[in-house]
Amino acid sequence: MTYFLQYQEALELYTAMTENLNRNDADIVDLYNRLIEKAVRYAHIRAEWNTLTREEKLEKDDSRTAAHDSFIASVNIIARSEDEIGLQWRERLGNDRKRVGDFACYIALFRSLEAR
Question: Concatenated DSSP letters for the chain?
Fold first, then answer.
């Protein structure tokens, strides 16, 4: 498995996640919506990262890590809520932090395109 998350694989993971979401459960839908918010927040932080000075990066590193950790926790919760199918796509995503961060960025992309 490659650690870099390719577009097609991200789309397959996102599709598996969204298609198997129990939209009749208000709590799950709320958790999913928070996952989206966390993905967008982390993607924003990552997108601006290379524009920051070294000092700014040092200042913001803890909040970036916290945003990343929060997104990962949300992914895990949603995957568990989807039982076997969720466990399958979550296992396929893996635990490499950069790869999971890539997934957040792709989610932000997919949601942005869906909103047009």
Answer: --SS--HHHHHHHHHHHHHT--TT-HHHHHHHHHHHHHHHHHHHHHHHGGGS-HHHHHHHHHHHHHHHHHHHHHHHHHHHHTHHHHHHHHHHH-S-HHHHHHHHHHHHHHHHHHT-
| Predicted confidence (pLDDT) per residue in 60-77, tens digit | 999 999 999 999 999 999
pLDDT, tens digit, 9 for 90 and up, residues 45-54: 999 999 999 9
Residue linked to tokens 């990552």:
46
Answer yes or no: pTM beyond 0.85: yes
Q: Which residue has the tokens 């789309």?
A: 11
d(CA 61, CA 69): 12
In which residue are the tokens 């992309």 written?
109
